[in-house]
Amino acid sequence: MTKISSLAFALLILTAFSLQSASAQFRIPDIPRVKKPKVEAPRSGGGNDASADDASVNDQQPNREAPPDYNANLNVNDMAVAIDHLGLLSAVRIVAKSGNKYKATGVEHPNHTYWYNANSVYPFFDKSEFSMISNDSTKARYLEPYLECYAKKHNLELIKVTGNAFDARNQSDAKALKQTLQDELPKLAELESWLKSKLLARPNTFRDYRDNPAIWEEITSNRDQYLQCAVGKKESLRVSESIWLRVQLGDIAKTQKRVEEGDMASSTNDNYLLYAVSPRAREKWMKDANALEFKPNLDPVLDALAASAAKGLPAYKPNAAAFQFRDPVAEKLLMGYFKNPATVTVHRIGLNTAGWQIQKDNYNLLPSYRYKTAYVYVRDSSDDHPYCRVIGATIKQDYAGGGTYSTETYRSSAKEDLFGCPAGVR
Fold first, then answer.
1. 325 and 415 share one domain
2. Which ranges of 3-157 would DSSP assign to H, the alpha helix?
3. Which tens digits make up the pLDDT trace of 206-229?
4. Please, which residues bridge with residue 378 across strands?
């Protein structure tokens, strides 16, 4: 190697060594790789799958009965109870949470994983154990008298607490109801003890009492206060019933006065007169009004009214003008009023007008229908009173347009009045 070549080679080695040293001192650091943490986010659409990360996991509908912002603040891996897409309570395990959502896997159906709105997920309780009392009609009966009080306290519609409308106890006497409920207080105490020993939590699921442990716990734990509420409610109802009784007694007194004054025309179609003379009609009226407890109050005044009627009613006869015209079609429709025509003796039958009367619409412009009024004066041997009756009925034909009426004739309404019978008729 020549001297020049050796020198050049030495310079090349020296330069390379210098560059390597410089790069060691001024090395550019590597750009770090940032790994974003995986965030569980609610997904929608699709069905369900065993994988919690599968894109087919879907959202369940929120509980419409619960406050939108309700959240029990549960944790991942917690057991819980959730309302599923069928509106049923299901045991689940929480596998993830995000915002106001919980991702949970079914316990009974572990291949079902859903995102639930937080207001549909509640602290865990054994729903099978709970159903043993909530679906037991005997145990539920101890709770039912207080459900209306619970609904009122929490400003809820009764049907949202009961699941259906019912009146658990029908005692009209508040004192008797109070004694019954007091006798049942030990049963409520047993239910309270059972709930606390069998259920880890008694959450408010915002469902009716069959699916809501909180209703059972509140009523059984505060049974003395709820008893006072239930009895007070009955006492308030009793006051309303007493007002009803006072109204009836006042109206009967008015009828009594008219009858005593001989004003039979305005009294014979009065229901009170029928209740006075017919024990069967009186009994039905009181039953329908749920007022049998007031029978001792009503019987004496109705009996007095019957006695007054017996003085003037036998001589009170219908006006002959009500039967002066005949119409076979109308009369046949009228007789259809009687359930058993075989017990009916007809004394007179007919109409008070020869032709049709026109009833116009609300604007008094076009006809609505045309009508006749038919009457029949009868004695029905099946009646439990000694009087005759006059049945009046409206016979109609609807307007068909163009100045014509339907060919169909029908009876649309009927009423009956009490009258004395013809001489010699009993």
1. yes
2. 3-25, 127-134, 137-143, 147-153
3. 999 999 999 999 999 999 999 988
4. 346, 389
